[in-house]
TrEMBL record:
<feature type="binding site">
    <location>
        <position position="180"/>
    </location>
    <ligand>
        <name>S-adenosyl-L-methionine</name>
    </ligand>
</feature>
<dbReference type="InterPro" id="IPR049560">
    <property type="entry name" value="MeTrfase_RsmB-F_NOP2_cat"/>
</dbReference>
<dbReference type="GO" id="GO:0008173">
    <property type="term" value="F:RNA methyltransferase activity"/>
</dbReference>
<feature type="domain" description="SAM-dependent MTase RsmB/NOP-type">
    <location>
        <begin position="24"/>
        <end position="304"/>
    </location>
</feature>
<dbReference type="InterPro" id="IPR027391">
    <property type="entry name" value="Nol1_Nop2_Fmu_2"/>
</dbReference>
<dbReference type="InterPro" id="IPR001678">
    <property type="entry name" value="MeTrfase_RsmB-F_NOP2_dom"/>
</dbReference>
<keyword id="KW-0808">Transferase</keyword>
<feature type="binding site">
    <location>
        <begin position="111"/>
        <end position="117"/>
    </location>
    <ligand>
        <name>S-adenosyl-L-methionine</name>
    </ligand>
</feature>
<dbReference type="Pfam" id="PF17126">
    <property type="entry name" value="RsmF_methylt_CI"/>
</dbReference>
<dbReference type="InterPro" id="IPR023267">
    <property type="entry name" value="RCMT"/>
</dbReference>
<dbReference type="Pfam" id="PF01189">
    <property type="entry name" value="Methyltr_RsmB-F"/>
</dbReference>
<dbReference type="InterPro" id="IPR029063">
    <property type="entry name" value="SAM-dependent_MTases_sf"/>
</dbReference>
<dbReference type="InterPro" id="IPR031340">
    <property type="entry name" value="RsmF_methylt_CI"/>
</dbReference>
<dbReference type="GO" id="GO:0006396">
    <property type="term" value="P:RNA processing"/>
</dbReference>
<comment type="similarity">
    <text>Belongs to the class I-like SAM-binding methyltransferase superfamily. RsmB/NOP family.</text>
</comment>
<keyword id="KW-0949">S-adenosyl-L-methionine</keyword>
<keyword id="KW-0694">RNA-binding</keyword>
Amino acid sequence: MFELPEAFRNKMIALMGSEEAGAFFETYNQDRAFGLRVNSLKLSPAKLLECAPFHLEPIPFCQEGFYYQNSDAPGQHPYHQAGLYYIQEPSAMFVAKALDPKPGECVLDLCAAPGGKSTQLAATMGNTGLLISNEPYPKRARALSENVERMGLKNTVVTNEMPERLAHYFPGYFDKILVDAPCSGEGMFRKDPEAMHYWSPEHVAECAALQAQILEQAYVMLRSEGILVYSTCTFSPEEDERMIDSFLEKHPDLELLPIEKKAGVSNGRPQWSESENPDLSKTARLWPHRLLGEGHFAAKIVKHGSASVRKQTAAPSVKENLLKDYRMFEQQALQRPLNGIFHFIGNQLFLLPDDCPDLGRLKIVRAGLHLGEQKKNRFEPNHSLALALPADAFQYQCPLVSSGEDWNRYLHGETLPLDNALKGWTVVTIDGFPLGWGKASGGILKNSYPKGLRRRGIK
Ligand SMILES: C[S@@+](CC[C@H](N)C(=O)[O-])C[C@H]1O[C@@H](n2cnc3c(N)ncnc32)[C@H](O)[C@@H]1O
């Protein structure tokens, strides 16, 4: 049994009444549900159901989401390394659905690490338009960038900035913004019991103060008639209904929009706010005693007022003569040339998302698709390129199957035997999905799987 903080227990009884609070506390005696979300950029849910060797049950509020049994460990399967799915807490899948970005839109995910919602947003956008996925903490921004890579995103720029600096660059710029705010994490006590140790009423108040600041910056960056989704994984009204209540009060040009609710998703509770504004019932709450998932809150807001806008210039592409080595690599390794805005950061070459603005002096962790590194007189492809294209985009393939053993050797960094005729950059596939690079020469494939991602120990 979980030892919930006493003050938290009492607060929830006072808010919910003892009967509902009893049902809520009972969930802490039950195991939590585990979820994965299919990466629709690489395969359909039906295709994963057909080929995955584990038992999957649909999550009713997310078409791409499935419950899995923890003992099946899908995180250990090579499909995970190939970016066919993202392991994500089931309730967390609801939030990106509420924002519902469209292909070609310009979207900001302001608090994005480790990237569950960003990778879902990018997939919903069909890898088109522009997603700026931001995280202020450098280590977390790197983890975010790795997930963006694994899921094969091409439309995403990962930034490592405080919201204030982004707001300086992008006033009135975004069609849609997600603020998945840092919060007191009450909804994750079962998933992350550590969160209980730093919980206190004072911590809730600190989180609420930070959230209000972040929301102000999001407001500045939203274009007129743009849509903002604010979400937390906590139950405290101070961070949920009351936060939205005071945000709306401060900005009369904002209007709450209804969020479609089904399969146990509940309305927000206006009676827990200062004003008791009935519109707050349009917000959504996910409760562990009402559905199979942890606690979440989401509010969807449109901004009717005008926004001051800064003129953006499109990012320029580098001159073609600087791409000589890249184009030679491309001829050897890819079926078709890539086009778009090519951009160097140092000697690293990126293909920027369409309509990408000049990124100026922003701290960039990843600028769209990372193609590779310009070395002295040659070009070396990046792991991201292997994961962002379908297998038939490559000239040479080393096809591995998940029922065999070689994929495990590959992920451990070993060389593999190969057809003698192949020479040069070759993509390694698992059941037809790219897994990484190798370099073929003299009947062996030298392993180019990134050292930092290699598996260690028992094969
Ligand atoms: C709830 S988590 C985001 C989870 C993420 N959206 C996902 O789906 O994987 C909140 C994130 O906000 C970041 N954060 C903390 N302070 C912040 C601030 N002042 N501005 C923006 N983000 C902040 C945290 O480091 C954390 O990564």
